[in-house]
Amino acid sequence: MSKKKLITLFFSTLYLSAFTFGGGYVIVTLMRKKFVSEYHWIDEDEMLDLIAIAQSSPGAIAVNGAIVVGYKLAGIAGIIVSVIATIIPPFVVISFISFCYEIFRTNIIIALILEGMQAGVGAVIAAVVFEMAAGIFHEKNIFSLFIMISSFILTYFLNINVIYIIFICIMIGLIKTFLWKGRVKS
Predict the structure, then answer these.
(1) Structural domain boundaries enclosing 179
(2) Which sequence ranges are marked TM in the entry (predicted)?
(3) Count of structural domains within the chain
(4) What would the pLDDT profile of 115-171 be if each residue is shown by its tens digit?
(5) Phi first, then psi: what are they for 88, rounded to 5°?
(6) Cα separation of 129 and 118, whole Å?
(7) Which of 69, 89, 101, 104 has the fewest CB atoms within 10 Å, measured from its CB?
(8) Does residue 90 share a domain with residue 181?
């Protein structure tokens, strides 16, 4: 990747991180729009795969997303550039808030602003879920649909811990991959 693209990657991830409120899941939609729709650096299916990797890895999803996208686009240099750009805004904001903690803690206007942001975050997370589900439905892959619906039922209705579901899905993915590789070699 050229120096110009690394600079673009830096400022894109800096911008996404600076204007993403509500945690890492919100950044998923914005990363997709930026890197798939706007720059055309990654295709839709590949972005879904990268997001799945970022979500299943331990740590903050925004940083994990920056790692996988940065690596895909520019290798180790892409990781360094995108991770630094992703952590700068929260670092600056947290530093400022910790410095002015007493003022923020008792300010009713700040509390109301944060409450309003919670509603917006809920809407963005719903949009992410809808877009990811639409991608699975669009593929018309019965196996993926079954996994998605089963995971929802197990977590929502049966209160199964998400860690177990992720582990089971990893095992299913590994088995499916090894079976598929065995069929391709034959």
Answers:
(1) 141-186
(2) 6-28, 76-101, 108-130, 142-175
(3) 2
(4) 888 888 788 778 877 887 887 778 777 888 888 889 989 999 999 998 999 899 889
(5) -60, -55
(6) 17
(7) 101
(8) no
